[in-house]
Design goal:
Ubiquitin-like (UB roll), 5-stranded mixed β-sheet, alpha+beta, single chain
């Protein structure tokens, strides 16, 4: 099982109280995790990635094992600890302003 930690506003939208666990088929990549997440929680479609392009939305970042994976290719394998379920894949809502 892949563990995914969502920011508070997306947890509210998905009606979950904590991290979610997903059974992801095939290689464990950002794309496969996000596809599975959006299938399990269709109300999240368009909030993390653009509907049409599937590109990460501005102000959304992806982290795993202490690394910022936001600019990594969507089909790059996630760290082994994420694939094993010992570390979560984190989706973070970045803040901006001045």
């Amino acid at each position: 099982m892949i563990r995914v930690v969502l920011p508070a506003h997306l947890r509210t939208l998905a009606r979950v109280n904590s991290e979610v666990e997903l059974q992801v088929e095939g290689p464990i990549t950002q794309r496969s995790v996000l596809d599975t997440l959006e299938t399990a929680y269709p109300m999240l479609r368009g909030t993390i990635r653009d509907f049409a392009t599937k590109e990460r939305r501005p102000f959304i970042r992806f982290f795993a094992c202490g690394q910022d994976l936001s600019d990594e290719p969507l089909d790059a394998l996630l760290p082994a600890a994420v694939a094993a379920g010992t570390q979560p894949f984190r989706i973070v809502g970045a803040m901006a302003g001045g």
